[in-house]
Write a structure and sequence with these properties.
One of its GO terms (molecular function) is FAD binding. By secondary structure, the chain is of the alpha+beta class. 30% of the residues lie in helices and 20% in strands. Bound molecules: flavin-adenine dinucleotide. The site of flavin-adenine dinucleotide has 35 residues, from helix 1, strand 7 and helix 8.
C-alpha cells in the first residue's frame, strides 16, 4: 500500500522472496521528477542523511552516483554551511558528513525508475486501498477501488499473502484492522505544533553561490523558530521557515520574507529580501511524531507497517526518507536470517528497531519544546538525565570538532547514540566549558587541520 519511498523500497526487498509484488498507489506517477498530490510534503526541503545514503546504496548499488549525476547537491557539514544552534554559530571545520539536498521529487523518481524495472513488481496506479480482507488472526489482502472519479465504483478484493502498509503518516490501517476484528496498534504521539512554509528562490547577491552553499538555524526550547536555505539541483535554493502553534509561518509573498526576521540573526532575511522567488510558498502543518506499535503481541499475521505509516517524525530533523531506506535494509536482513523464522511479529520488531534512533532523537528533542502535547510527552527519569547530557552536547557541538563530529554522526543516523558517550566526547561534555564559537556567521570554511585543534 503506497508507492512512495517506503513502499518502493519494501517492494524491492520483497521481490527477492515472492512470485509477485503489487504496489497499489493512489496517484498516477508523473512523467519525470515532478511533485505529486499523494506526497504533498514533496514541495518542502528533503535532505537525505548519511544513514539513508548508506542504506539506499546497499539496496540499490550505484544509487548515490546516479543521484550525483542527476545534479543533486552534496553538501559537507559543517564546512559548506552557515549553521546556528542553541545561541551559537558552528565553526566551519572540514566536513565529517555530507547530506544530499536535491528535490524530493528527483530522489523519488530515481528510486522509482530503479525499483519498477524489476519484472516481479507491478504497480496499480490511480488505485486506492479502501480496506482489508481477513480476520483477527490474519490479513489476507486489501480492498481496492479505482480512482476513475466514479465515487459509486465498487471496491474489489486483491488477495495477498503479505500486506505492507507504506501509505504514509495518514494511514487508515488502524481503522481497517479494527474493521476485520483485529487489534489496532497503540499510538505514541508527541506534537509540538510545528508548522512549515517553503518556497524556491534564486539568489541575486552571490552570498550562497560559492563556498557557502546554504544556511540553517535549528530550533530549540528558547528559540523556537527554524529557518534555512538549501541548494537544489538546478542552482536555486529551497527556503524554509518554521514556527510553533499559534505563530505559524505565512505563505503570502511579503509575509514569508518578513517572517524570517523572527530568526535571532539576519543573514537569511537579508538574502531573501534580495532573492527572486521562483514558486509560491507552500505551508505544511502536520508534523507530529507518531509511532504505531504493530509489534506488540496479539497482532494479525500477514501484515507489516513501514515508513511513515509505522513511525512518522517531526520533519524538522530530516529523518523520514533515511528511516524508510534503513527499514528496507532491516526487512531484507530479517528475511535473510536463516537462524530464525521470520514471523510477522519478528519482522515488525526489526522494522521498529530500524526507526528507534530517529525516534529517540526526534521525540527526545520535541518533549522539551514548549507546548508539546501527546501520549508520549512525559519521558521517565532516564529521559531527563539523557536530556541534561544532550543539551551539554548541543552547547559544545558548534565549537568543539570532536563533539561536533559525534553529534553529526548520531544526528545523521550513521552511528548509534553511544557515539556521544565515547571517552573523548564524554570528557569534553562533562568536564570542559563549551569551546569558543564564531561571534559572526563564518563567511568561509576553516582550513583542513582544524579538526586536530
Ligand atoms: C514537510 C516535510 C518535510 C520533510 N523533510 C524531510 C527531510 O528533509 N528528510 C527526510 O528524510 N524526510 C523528510 N520528510 C519525511 C518524508 O517525506 C517521508 O518520511 C518519506 O516520504 C517516506 O514516507 P513514506 O513512503 O512512508 O510515505 P509517503 O511519502 O507519505 O507516501 C505515502 C504514499 O502512499 C500513497 N497512499 C496513501 N494512502 C493510500 C491509499 N489508501 N491507497 C493507495 N495509496 C495510498 C500516497 O499517494 C503516497 O504515494 C519530510 C516530511 C514532511 C511532512
Amino acid at each position: 500500500m503506497g508507492g512512495s519511498l517506503a513502499g518502493l523500497l519494501a517492494a524491492h526487498v520483497l521481490a527477492g522472496h515472492a512470485d509477485r509484488v503489487t504496489v497499489v498507489e493512489r496517484d498516477r506517477f508523473p512523467d519525470g521528477a515532478k511533485p505529486r498530490p499523494g506526497v504533498p510534503q514533496g514541495r518542502h526541503p528533503h535532505v537525505l542523511l548519511q544513514g539513508g545514503q548508506t542504506a539506499l546504496e546497499s539496496l540499490l548499488p550505484g544509487f548515490l552516483a546516479e543521484l550525483r549525476e542527476a545534479g543533486a547537491p552534496r553538501v559537507g557539514m559543517p564546512a559548506d554551511m552557515v549553521l546556528w544552534q542553541s545561541g551559537r554559530w558552528f565553526r566551519r571545520v572540514p566536513a565529517s558528513t555530507h547530506i544530499y539536498t536535491g528535490s524530493r521529487a528527483q530522489l523519488e523518481e530515481l528510486v522509482r525508475r530503479r525499483v519498477l524495472a524489476n519484472p516481479v513488481i507491478s504497480v496499480r496506479e490511480g488505485t486506492d486501498v479502501v480496506g482489508f480482507l481477513g480476520d483477527a488472526t490474519r490479513v489476507r489482502g486489501v480492498l481496492v477501488r479505482d480512482r476513475s472519479g466514479d465515487t459509486r465504483a465498487e471496491s474489489r478484493p486483491l488477495a495477498a499473502d503479505l500486506v505492507v502498509d507504506a501509505s504514509g503518516s495518514g494511514t487508515k490501517a488502524p481503522q481497517w484492522l479494527a474493521a476485520i476484528g483485529a487489534e489496532r496498534p497503540r499510538e505514541e504521539t508527541i506534537d509540538t505544533g510545528l508548522a512549515y512554509a517553503s518556497r524556491v528562490y534564486r539568489g541575486t547577491n552571490g552570498a550562497l553561490d560559492g563556498e557557502t552553499r546554504g544556511y540553517y538555524a535549528y530550533p530549540d526550547p528558547e528559540q523556537v523558530h527554524a529557518g534555512g536555505a538549501l541548494p537544489l539541483e538546478d542552482g536555486s535554493h529551497l527556503v524554509i521557515v518554521s514556527g510553533l502553534r499559534g505563530d505559524e509561518p505565512p505563505t503570502g509573498d511579503d509575509e514569508f520574507v518578513t517572517y524570517a526576521k523572527r530568526l535571532p540573526h539576519p543573514p537569511l532575511h537579508r538574502w531573501l529580501a534580495e532573492a527572486e522567488p521562483l514558486s509560491p510558498a507552500f505551508g505544511h502543518r502536520r508534523t507530529a511524531n507518531i509511532r504505531r506499535r504493530h509489534d506488540l503481541p496479539g497482532r494479525p499475521a500477514g501484515f507489516l507497517a513501514t515508513g511513515d505509516a509505522l513511525c512518522t517524525f517531526n520533519p524538522i530533523y530530516g529523518q523520514g526518507m533515511a528511516v524508510a531506506a534503513m527499514s528496507a535494509v532491516a526487512l531484507r536482513d530479517a528475511l535473510a536470517d536463516r537462524r530464525r523464522t521470520p514471523t510477522t511479529r519478528r519482522v515488525q520488531q526489526a522494522l521498529l528497531a530500524a526507526s528507534r534512533l530517529a525516534w529517540d532523537i526526534s521525540a527526545g528533542a520535541d518533549r522539551k519544546m514548549p507546548g508539546a502535547v501527546g501520549t508520549a510527552v512525559d519521558g521517565g527519569p532516564a529521559d531527563q538525565v539523557a536530556g541534561w547530557y544532550l543539551s551539554r552536547v548541543q552547547e559544545r557541538a558548534p565549537g568543539d570538532p570532536v563533539v561536533g563530529r559525534a553529534f553529526r554522526a548520531v544526528l545523521t543516523l550513521s552511528e548509534p547514540i553511544t557515539a556521544l558517550f565515547a571517552p573523548p566526547v564524554a570528557r569534553a561534555v562533562l568536564f570542559g566549558p563549551p569551546a569558543p564559537t564564531p561571534t559572526e556567521p563564518p563567511a568561509a570554511p576553516e582550513e583542513p587541520g582544524a579538526l586536530a585543534q
